[in-house]
Specification:
By secondary structure, the chain is an alpha+beta fold. It has two domains: 9-80, Alpha-Beta Complex (Outer Surface Protein A, domain 3), CATH 3.90.930; 83-164, Alpha-Beta Complex (Outer Surface Protein A, domain 3). It is built from two helices and 13 strands, in the order ββββββαββββββαβ. It is elongated, with a radius of gyration of 21 Å. InterPro entries: Ribosomal_uL6-like, Ribosomal_uL6-like_a/b-dom_sf, Ribosomal_uL6_a/b-dom, Ribosomal_uL6_bac-type, Ribosomal_uL6_CS.
Amino acid sequence: MSRIGKKPVQVPAGVTANVDGQKVTAKGPKGELFFVANDEVSVKLENNTVVVQPVNESKDARAKWGMSRTMIENILKGVKDGYERKLEINGVGYRASMQGKNLQLALGFSHDVVYQTPEGITIAVPKPTEIVVSGINKQQVGQVAAEIREYRGPEPYKGKGVKYAEERIVRKEGKKK
């Protein structure tokens, strides 16, 4: 029994949800998203709530039950409020700036790193040491933030690099004399 899967997903106000077989479509003020559920689960729209049930009691069906429910909840929240991920840059000379739609990062390399913003994602740089990635697709926002962080992840000795705003870097002690 999936604890997450058995909870019905409430459709928020201002969002219209449509279930067509295995395809769940959500349309809201921020845009439109869809999710195609696996054949192991059944999806129904009842009284402004989306109910996900496993087709049978196989282990595979139970595993996809909770995941499908969470994905549907994510698209409903995304089209209403959207998602954002904040990144911080630490280090002398490390900074970020926007050049048109591209993000330019100075991260201590011999060249600046230019990251092209994908479709459906908005990147903002309120301060040279702060990056805000936002969009309606939770997976895509997280992936873009992870790709930016990957250019120069935080190192444990001085804490230099790109890190998530809520991330805590465990610092190591330097070598002793």
